[in-house]
Protein: Olfactory receptor
Organism: Mandrillus leucophaeus
Amino acid sequence: NWANESSPKEFILLGFSDRAWLQMPLFVVLLISYTITIFGNVSIMMVCILDPKLHTPMYFFLTNLSILDLCYTTTTVPHMLVNIGYNKKTISYAGCVAQLIIFLALGATECLLLAVMSFDRYVAVCRPLHYVVIMNYWFCLRMAAFSWFTGFSNSVLQSSLTLNMLRCGHQEVDHFFCEVPALLKLSCADTKPIEAELFFFSTLILLIPVTLILISYGFIAQAVLKIRSAEGRRKAFGTCGSHMIVVSLFYGTAIYMYLQPPSSTSKDWGKMVSLFYGIITPMLNPLIYSLRNKDMKEAFKRVMPRIFFCKK
C-alpha cells in the first residue's frame, strides 16, 4: 500500500535551500534550459513530421526522443521553477508519486530508445542493402512501442518498491524532485534488500542497452573504416557521432546515479548529476542532432519559413 501510515500528505524538497545565494542563478539556468528544450524539441518534431524527406526510421526514432525529452523535463522543471520563484519547497504525496513514476518511466524509455537508434544506425551502415526490408514501418513501430511499454513497466516495479518503504514520518527529501536515490534515504528500515532489487532492475535497463550500443558501434566503426570515399566516411561518422555524444552524456550520468548505493553518493554531487541528465541533456539533444546533421539543417531551411512566414 503506497499511502501507508508512514506516508505524509506532502514532502519538503530541500534542493539547495542551505545555499540561498544559489536560488536565483539556479532559477535563471532552469528557465533558460527549459525554454531551449521546448523550442529545440518542438522544432525537431515539427521538421521531422512536416518534411517528407525525413520520413525515415532514423527520424521517426528522433521524433520519439524529442517527445520523450519534452515530457521528461516537464515532469520536474515547472514545479522546480515554482518552488524556487515562490520560495515554496513542498510537493504533495500524490504529486511526488506521479513525478517519481513518470520521471523513472521516461528515463528507462530513453535508455531503450537510444539502443534502438543505435541498431538503426548499425543496419544503415553495415547492412545498407537490407535496410528498407529490416527497418520497415511495422518493425520500427513495434520497437518504439516496446521501448515505451518496457520503460513504464520498469517504472511501476521500481516505484512500488521505493514507495512501500517505511519512512516513519520522514518527509524532507534532500533533492529538487522525487527520485529513487533521494527517497531511499528517507527510510527508517534496512534498505539493503530493496537496494539489491532496484540495482537488478537498473542493471537490466542501463547496462544491457549500453552494451548493445557499444557492440553496434564496434561493428559500425569497422564498416566505416572500410569505406573508401572520404565524404562517405565523414557522413557516417557525423550521423553516428551525434548519437554517441547523446549516449555518453545520458548513460554516463544515469549509471553514476543508479548503479551505486545511495549512501555512497555525495549529497550535492548527486543533485548536480540529476540536474544534468534530467535537464541539461534533453536541452543538448536537439542542438547536437541539428547542428551536426546536414540533412536536419537542410530540412530546417525548407520547413521553418513555411511555419513562421506561411510560405509554401
Notes: The chain has one domain: 10-302. Residues 37 and 78 are 12 Å apart (CA to CA). The longest helix spans residues 93-126. The longest strand covers residues 10-13.
